[in-house]
Design a protein that fits this description.
The complex is a heterodimer of chains A (425) and B (425).
Chain A (H helix, E strand, L loop, with lengths): L17 E5 L5 H9 L3 E6 L23 H6 L3 E5 L5 H13 L2 E4 L5 H4 L4 H7 L4 E6 L14 H8 L1 H4 L17 H24 L3 E6 H6 L5 H8 L4 E3 L2 E4 L7 E3 L5 E3 L8 H13 L9 H8 L6 H15 L3 H10 L5 E2 L10 H6 L4 E5 L4 E5 L5 E2 L17 H8 L4 H9 L4
Parallel strand pairs in A: 1-2, 1-4, 2-3, 4-5, 5-6
Antiparallel strand pairs in A: 7-8, 9-10, 10-11, 12-13
Helix pairs in contact in A: 1-8
Chain B lengths: L10 E4 L5 H11 L3 E6 L28 H6 L3 E5 L5 H12 L3 E4 L5 H5 L3 H7 L4 E6 L14 H8 L19 H24 L3 E6 H6 L3 H10 L22 E6 L5 E2 L2 E2 L2 E6 L3 H10 L14 H6 L1 H12 L4 H10 L3 E4 L3 H6 L2 H5 L3 E5 L6 E5 L3 E3 L17 H8 L4 H9 L4
Parallel strand pairs in B: 1-2, 1-4, 2-3, 4-5, 5-6
Antiparallel strand pairs in B: 7-10, 8-9, 10-11, 12-13
Helix pairs in contact in B: 1-7
The chains are: A alpha/beta (425), B alpha/beta (425).
Chain lengths: 425, 425
């Protein structure tokens, strides 16, 4: 019970958990999810720094090891201790930490920790209640387990890219989303596996090893594509900005007066009520000319979706959207229950009061090292009893060495000097 | 002997439909939770009628028991029809909640309130219930009544914008990625809430917004704006399949030899992704492709040079890949220790991916209405001590009512007949 004396402990869902985070850029989002819900998460990083510390973007474009925004975001609430686990002394220090830990997270190549004498078998013999989660590109077993990967390679092989891209550009490649989303999807399953094992331990007292493959995590994250083959033996086609399909569907992107794009659906609306309200709205902007004809009402109530009349309606609606600013179209459409939206750039949600004020989504995080606070994206869910929170920013490199070595492992200042001089920490 | 299912003994009342909610409860069911899917013959899960989207299963059964999409997302669950709008039906639901741990739904935000099943009302029948709601915007906030589909949520979150070629419209995601991801976040939140309940005996309400499920994946982009003032919406963004962070080259998808199958009047295009992060990998890559003269050109000597001349570099690499099949490119480069991966279709993953087969990610499942065994993918997590398991196919509409009413609620035949008379089902 790490936070036993902390009055907040009862409101932190994972306030009793100590997690050692040995992951690189593939797996660090797992530890963030646990830390933001109250687990004490210690990043065990090499003395030269976690690999993500070298990946931008960087604060003020200064690429020093404490300025990576990728690292900042994915290491909130964590502590940092530097240990060279490839040294004998370093692996002893790690084992000492493992005795006290509930969970170890790691994303090294399969077999690497074993080769250092700190694989699951050794660690679980030190601490039989340990839950260890290994997140790797292809899993711990199988013919691909040693293949090299990257977020792009996993997104390619797992299937998201085969479904995503362009149909209006004839030679465009399949597309992956920027922003490490392939790894994040693996991390989601990493946390599902970790928390499942933690619950099993709550109930039985037994720890275990959890093996999560990013390739499999993405391979089941492609919606209709897999059923399309399992049940129909068909391969869907990519279409610009909208669902993959076995047959082409109408375009869903519409340019607005301010040069943004609306993602539109159900155009013209299938429901007569929504059609009437859309015409009313267009009429307010004097753009409903020719649309009030009963002919269109009849065709819509008959469920007609194709033909020159429908093309005409789509053209008129396209013109209407093009005449207004994007945010106005978005809210206007939602008010008549059309699930349209603006295609926003991520930072544009900082101005949306639903998220900023009503749901308190964004968090202010103090960076004492810069004497400033910055706004971070926040919770994946609102928990009514155990709120998500950022209680401290990501750790500076080795920031918690003294505290952890002295107070957790009982080392003296002299011990630490020797470890530092021999480059173990 | 079969290993233990970790969530055995956890019971879920499942009001979810379409993808986001069923994705979450499929995970819980795979892990051994008893998931009771509540539908009604006049209000069934709409994917039951989406025969075209996700495949049609042939056979004698009713069409709503033959939907591929329904089959894919509802395995391991039990099914019952209840008319919650009738007092006797609501009473059955309350009895179910009183013996359950979790209630989950992804209706519009006022539906359960209207039924008389707000979180507070659920607590009256089960004081420690964990209630998870999934909507586009959450139940809290001014836009709680706005409606979304996956692409709507993706557009708002920034994830649509982040996928695409620079200078072109966003390609976005070719499917409802945030239906999956909201489901993953809901599963994570529920597992964390179960741990909190194990410790304190306290349940809680978890309010999930699909848009926020995407916003949490855009952290570094938002921080670049809040700390550096640099919006993601700027020239050159998104980077397509190239890598801006870290800035390395080559890192892209490359056209390979096409397939014989004709799509839109042309052979189906095939692609392979390649990621090279350092000089060693570059040297191995050059050797693997036979060290053509251009690889020795000084303009590709260092990563900085390759980044500067990326357009030309990508064309030259494509001249090597374009007469080879994507898996041939992948194996040739992987054998040399270079990260490369075919852009795999659903067919590739299911038919010719030895990794997914060797880890038994693709499994077989007996359909419950049609006398056929179909393949399906499974949970991408391997546990050393417990397991996830495909135990049975998705429930035909209302198929498990007898079991649920007699075995779980302990009702007699007379009591059930009574409820039928009161139109509870």
């Amino acid at each position: 019970m790490v936070f036993a004396n902390n009055p907040q402990e009862q409101s932190l869902a994972l306030g009793d958990m100590l997690v050692l985070d040995l992951t690189d850029e593939k797996g660090m989002y797992m530890g963030k999810m646990l830390a933001d819900m109250g687990a004490r998460v210690i990043v065990v990083e090499p003395p030269e720094g976690h690999p993500a510390r070298a990946i931008g973007p960087f604060y003020q474009d200064d690429p020093n090891s404490n300025n990576s925004l990728l690292f900042w975001y994915n290491n909130t609430n964590k502590e940092s201790v530097t240990i060279d686990i490839t040294t004998t002394k370093g692996s002893e220090l790690l084992k000492d930490l493992v005795k006290r830990a509930d969970v170890v997270l790691e994303s090294y190549k399969p077999g690497y920790l074993d080769s250092l004498g700190i694989g699951y078998e050794v660690l679980s013999s030190i601490n039989p209640k340990l839950v260890m989660t290994s997140l790797t590109p292809f899993g711990q077993t199988g013919p691909y387990r040693d293949l090299n990967s990257s977020d792009l390679i996993n997104m390619a092989m797992g299937g998201p890219m085969a479904s995503s891209g362009y149909d209006h550009l004839s030679d465009a490649p399949p597309m992956r989303c920027d922003g490490w989303i392939g790894y994040a999807t693996g991390c989601n399953f990493g946390v599902i596996g970790t928390m499942t094992a933690v619950l099993h331990r709550d109930w039985t007292g037994k720890g275990q090893w959890v093996d999560v493959s990013i390739h499999e995590s993405l391979s089941c994250t492609t919606e209709a594509a897999m059923p399309n083959w399992f049940y129909d033996r068909k391969v869907p086609m990519r279409q610009t900005g909208r669902h993959h399909g076995l047959a082409p569907t109408p375009s869903s992107q519409f340019i607005t007066a301010d040069g943004k794009l609306i993602n539109g659906f159900d155009i013209p609306p299938r429901s007569l009520d929504r059609w009437n309200r859309l015409v009313e709205w267009m009429d307010e902007k004097e753009m409903a000319e020719g649309l009030k004809d009963d002919k269109y009402r009849d065709l819509i109530s008959q469920g007609v979706r194709q033909g020159p009349e429908m093309d005409f309606l789509r053209d008129k609606i396209t013109e209407f959207i093009a005449s207004q600013p994007a945010e106005e179209i978005y809210h206007g459409a939602q008010k008549i229950r059309l699930a349209w939206a603006v295609i926003r750039s991520p930072e544009e949600n900082l101005e949306d009061e639903h998220f900023t004020d009503d749901r308190d989504f964004f968090a202010r995080v103090e960076h004492s090292e810069h004497g400033k606070s910055f706004t971070y994206p926040g919770h994946p869910a609102i928990f009514s009893k155990t709120p998500w929170s950022i209680r401290r920013r990501a750790p500076l490199l080795g920031e918690d060495n003294d505290n952890i070595f002295k107070n957790m492992l009982g080392l003296t200042s002299e011990d630490i000097v020797i470890l530092r001089e021999s480059k173990v920490v | 002997m079969a290993k233990q299912l970790p969530l055995e003994g956890v019971r879920v009342v499942d009001f979810t439909h379409i993808v986001a909610g069923p994705q979450c409860t499929r995970i819980l069911a795979d892990l051994g939770a008893q998931v009771i899917k509540v539908e009604h013959s006049q209000a069934m899960d709409v994917v039951r009628s989406a025969g075209g989207a996700g495949g049609g299963i042939q056979g004698e059964a009713e069409p709503y028991n033959r939907s591929g999409m329904f089959e894919y997302f509802n395995r391991n669950k039990l099914g019952i029809n209840v008319n919650v709008l009738m007092p006797a039906g609501l009473d059955v639901i309350k009895k179910l909640i009183s013996v359950s741990d979790i209630v989950i739904e992804n209706f519009s935000s006022r539906v359960l309130e209207r039924w008389g099943l707000s979180y507070e009302e659920q607590c009256e029948v089960k004081s420690d219930i964990i209630y998870a709601s999934i909507t586009g915007f959450g139940h809290i906030g001014r836009y709680r009544d706005y409606s979304t589909w996956g692409p709507t949520a993706q557009a708002l979150s920034g994830l649509t914008y982040m996928s695409g070629l620079p200078g072109e419209r966003p390609a976005g995601w070719g499917y409802s990625f945030l239906d999956h991801t909201a489901g993953y976040n809901a599963a994570i939140a529920i597992l964390m809430a179960l741990h909190h309940k194990n410790r304190t005996g306290e349940g809680q309400w978890l309010d999930l917004s699909q848009v926020e499920s995407g916003m949490v994946l855009t952290g570094p982009a938002v921080l670049d704006y809040t700390t550096n003032g640099r919006p993601y919406r700027r020239e050159g963004n998104p980077p397509g399949n190239r890598s801006n962070n870290p800035k390395v080259a080559p890192h892209n998808t490359y056209r390979c030899a096409g397939e014989d199958e004709i799509v839109d009047g042309k052979p189906r295009q095939r692609w392979c992704a390649i990621s090279i992060f350092n000089e060693e990998e570059w040297e191995r890559f050059c050797v693997a492709i036979g060290s053509p003269e251009w690889t020795k050109d000084l303009k590709f000597a260092t990563n900085a040079d390759r980044v500067k001349n990326e357009d030309e570099l990508d064309k030259l690499i494509e001249s090597w890949t374009s007469d080879k099949m994507p898996h041939e490119v992948m194996y040739r480069l992987q054998n040399a220790g270079v990260a490369a991966g075919a852009v795999q279709t659903n067919e590739d993953k299911i038919v010719r991916d030895p990794q997914l087969r060797s880890r038994e990610f693709i499994q077989r499942i007996q359909h419950r209405s049609v006398d056929e065994i179909y393949e399906t993918d499974s949970l991408p997590i391997k546990f050393s001590e417990t397991e996830s398991r495909i135990r049975q196919g998705s429930p035909p509409l209302g198929a498990d009512a007898d079991y649920i009413l007699t075995e779980i609620l302990g009702m007699t035949a007379d009591e059930i007949a009574d409820l039928s008379e009161q139109a509870a089902f």
